[in-house]
Batch of 4 targets.
Target 1
Amino acid sequence: MLYLLAIVMVAALGLNFASCSKDDEKSGDGGGTGSSLIGKWRKMDDDGTLKHTIWAFEANGTMYEYDIDDQGKTKEGSTETFKYKVENQHLFTDKLRESGGYEGEWKDEGAISIANGILTVTRDSGKIKRYKKIL
């Protein structure tokens, strides 16, 4: 009877670990950060002051970077379009050329983390950028 109980316990623990692994795979980005990026993020200074740069991430893998004026309107000619992906908790972008088509080179923007509505991007050099979720 003790032997049977031990087998049941091991099987139950195995299912628990399998469930955790499967949940991570569902996100498609190794931990869920990619889907958490969807929306608009406004750049912040170190003191928390909001700047005029916006990052907008769409579920289809498109990212836009643009500047806004003091009234929140997009500054004409400031929008740049990228493809993005998240791998190993790093954000990678590929810029759309003015002539059309993407550059074909994925730029590592840095390691990313999201906590309390703040996106932190840390480059390998140690430089940190922060963005506050606005939508």
Note: Residues 2-26 form the longest helix (25 residues).
Target 2
Amino acid sequence: MFSSLMLAAVLVAVPTRTTPVEVLAVCRFNAALADETLMHHLVELTAVVTEIERDGIGGYIVRLDAEAHESDFIGRVEIHCHFVGTARPALAGIKPGEAVTIRGVPRELRDHLSFPLDKNVRIKMKDCELLVAAP
């Protein structure tokens, strides 16, 4: 019963709409905001697909990357969107460099922004679905 209530709450939740560059900016400046708006919340990301690979257990991972190059900050974000195997036909239609919109729930955020040489944010999104592929 409790799990069905949680599922119902997720289904009616309004997703946070963002891009990988905006995610990087949020993670850089405000960890509390990243937790409040991203982690374990429904998120819609619009970005160019970097790569689609197998996850090794029958599903697929769509990777979205972005970079920021500013005078006081150089950073990269890598977002891994995990799809079930039944998403294969939709994912197979994505062309290299094509922009898409993906909905999912970020479950893991690794923030290495304090590293002096390699400033990165890595996010794993679960329960992903492809909403829009560019025409």
Note: The first helix runs from residue 2 to 12.
Target 3
Amino acid sequence: MKFVKKRAVEYVNSFEEADRIVLLRSGQHYFNSLIQLIESAQKIIHLQMYILNDDAIGNIVLDALINARKRGVDIFVVADGFGSNQLTNTYKEKLIQAGINFRIFSRISLFKNLSIGRRMHHKIVVADGQKALVGGINIADKYYGPDHTEPWLDFAVFLEGNVSKKLEKICYQIEEKKYYLSRNPSEKYKAKTRPILINIRQNDWLRNKKQVSQSYHLAIRNAEKSIVIFASYFLPGLRLRLALEAASRRGVKITLVLPGISDIPLALNATYFLYYWLLKNNMRIFEWKKSVLHAKIAIVDDEWMTVGSFNLNVLSTYASIESNVDILDKDFVKNARSVIDKIIEEGCEEITIHRKRPFLTRIRERIAYFLGRTLIKTITFFPTFKNFYSRMVD
């Protein structure tokens, strides 16, 4: 792929070097890395999660944090007020009593009964400004898969190097309620191995950041051969749909992996409504059948990829604080593509235009699509439907 326009060139020039990067999948693979990251920390840990649960894996993480604090590590934990609304007082008290700085990220209240739907949706853990985890995986049993159950499918990346300092600054911004981030570049360093180029991207409407959205549009518009997207709660806006349609007309092979199982039936039926348009435009559709699909990852031309918390819908675009990592490295992305292809082969079913659906089912899907988009737009700015909102941007 070639980034040719001025804005695209500026985007490419904003990439930084990482010492090391590893693609992680939900389940033990991710949580083993998380525990190791906490146990290896020497000075400071920042942990910011949309969902932090008082369950089996939540308590394993809690114990690791408490042990780190006993070693003298300074720890800052922020959990979102919507996503973590079921976090028990007992769990919170254990954090505070251990000397861990803990707070809840709350919505913006305009008046007594009117609030703006801004949420801290990212999932970031940073240790000592040198190692970090960032992606779409929350701290909850459903992402861990206890008792040999299949965890919700999602991804994250482990980063090592001074590039992690940018994620640390993002955490400080949330913790200290600062509007601006300082623009000091990461200090110079020599990579231990061949450096991999990455770009930390944010979406935060309050700070006029639309970086993750821009990444998707730039990559799709510049795609030459292939696009693979794993998307939960897939309700893209018109602009993204037109970009995908234009890419398909250019001969780009587009593969979409969408939920076959969902925790939100309305969202699933709304996505079904798009199937006819997707197939008509020669895009291949696969449904992940083993568990709930929660992944937010894209690969273009086996050269560029993005992974993080950003969903392809209006909530992530306008309401939530999101963080993604863009990676521009042929070897790493090709290896990631092999992992993705194996997941598609072993756990997905391809949907073709020959799948017949009853007339009433098609009507239900159409209603779900328009109702779903209307509800999402409403709760994006005025989240009165608290429980629905919490699940919708999970």
Note: The domain at 6-392 is CATH 3.30.870.10 (Endonuclease; Chain A).
Target 4
Amino acid sequence: MKKSILLVAIAFIAFSSVAVFAETNGSSNGGSSVTTTGQQGANSQKCTDVTGKVTLVTERYSQNKNKYMNAFQNMYENMNSLMLKLKSDGYDTTKLETDLSQFNNMIQNASRYYNAFEYGLDNSKKGVCGNSDADSGQEFTRAREQLSLCKNEMLNLRTFAEETLKLDLLALKDQVSE
């Protein structure tokens, strides 16, 4: 009986080693398809993750951008209409006109920087997903630079409004008292 158990164990080891050998040879020939499929699955998951993150970031920044750009645009329009009214009343508004023109240019620059940021993020996403030849890392770096420029321009807009435009309005107020 002990001999029969020993024979069964040897036969099992022999058959399993043959099966392992056959599987090893098969995986070297056909195993690349499994690896490629695994890489495609990982790339697909990475694309899905990046797409979701880009969408969240873009939505959040877009909401904030719209809020602040609308405020700056409303400020420009209100000050421009006030300037036109004061100009028609005979006040010297040349300084305010030039400053408002500069303020409007700053608004346009901030909007342009933000659009470049969104474009860069989209290109980065396309590069990760394999839909573009663009280097996703470089595109992401450019997008971050554009976002930084946009933030700086919005800060400059706020500072310009508080310091320059406010002083222009105070100068017009002094013209009233003269």
Note: Residues 15-36 have pLDDT under 50 and may be disordered.
